[in-house]
Amino acid sequence: MRTVLVTGFEPFGGESINPSWEVVKQFDGTIIDNCRVVARQLPCVFGESLAVLNAAIDALSPAVVLAVGQAGGRVDITVERVAINIDDARIADNSGQQPVDAPVIPDGPAAWFSSLPIKAMVAALRERGIPASVSQTAGTFVCNHVMYGLLNKISGQAETRGGFIHIPYLPQQAAAHPGAPSMAAETVKEALEIAISVALHQTTDIKITGGATH
């Protein structure tokens, strides 16, 4: 049986929960399309997050790796297109590190593109009535750090594909941030299940617009 590794983060930035882990942990031990799903929590820490992720990949040899992170302020499920080789932290991580203009991987390529069918995933979510879009930036904090490290780790491994999805605040978080958008955990869970299923069944992406003007 093939394995899917899905990851979420611990809380950061003063939040008491992280919606990525609150939803992702529900998948641990489940079966999606005859594949075993394993959930792992990553620390919101530069370096350590990749050590935990890489150890899980080595142990599980997953067919698909889907990392999920919180993007407070975003209005929909955003499937990331690209990760860049830079750590430039606006705030400190959970260990107090705040790198500025530091490479994720010294001498690594400038960027890695997701190896998942990002536009097909977005289309499937929209067809189900779930707001979704392609995102052109995963930021420069630990989420981008993990996405870049993940794609660097699996580069050249045809048997493993991976990518990253950002999700909005949960309603209980948005209540503390007046005006901030949110999405119910049940909707996020449905979205991730759909995204995983599409990733398992579709190895090539569809050709529809997913660009941005700014």
Explain the overall architecture.
The mean pLDDT is 97. This protein has six helices and nine strands; from the N terminus they run βαββαββββαβαβαα. It is of the alpha/beta class and 214 residues long. Helix content is 29%, strand content 21%. It has helices at 19-24, 48-60, 118-127, 142-154, 171-174, 185-201; strands at residues 3-9, 31-32, 35-42, 64-70, 77-80, 82-84, 111-113, 132-135, 161-167. The strands form two sheets. Strands 2-3-1-4-9-5-8 form a seven-stranded mixed β-sheet, sandwiched between helices.
The value of Rg in angstroms is 16 Å
> How many beta strands in the DSSP annotation?
9
CATH superfamily: Peptidase C15, pyroglutamyl peptidase I-like
How would a crystallographer describe the biggest sheet? 7 strands, mixed
What is the overall pLDDT average?
97
Q: At CATH's second level, what is the architecture?
A: 3-Layer(aba) Sandwich
Secondary-structure content class: alpha/beta
Unreliable runs:
none
What is this entry, summarized?
This protein has 214 residues and is α/β, with parallel strands linked by helices. It has one domain: 3-Layer(aba) Sandwich (Aminopeptidase), CATH 3.40.630.20. It is built from six helices and nine strands.
